[in-house]
Design goal:
alpha+beta, four-stranded mixed sheet, Glutaredoxin, about 130 residues, globular
Length: about 130
Amino acid sequence: MQAPACSRSKRKLDSEPEVQHSIDSVSEKSSIVTKARVILYTRPGCHLCDEAKIAMLAARCDDEYTLDEVNIESDPRLLHAYRHDIPVIFINGIEAFRHRVATEDFRRRLFMGDQSESDIPQTKETP
């Protein structure tokens, strides 16, 4: 004897809310925006680095990124690579600025995300 058709339908209906709940959870998680990662290569006494930090703060978007300040004197490779070029600013692993940064340029580059323009150097991060 077969089970009545309505009991199969009932089981299917019981599982639908769980599936919908899973879909809602995925939608909520995918709507979470991750912050950009900004790395500022610097060293003590660097007045251009101080100016870069001021320009970045003046952009008023510090809640949109995490900032890691890296002292190039802490690693001989970084010191060799950036000795005469600080500050160097990377956004999401791509070099965005060297020596100077203007507030509006920082804001624009931060919100560009992974897009690239022909005027943007595509230098990868050198750890």
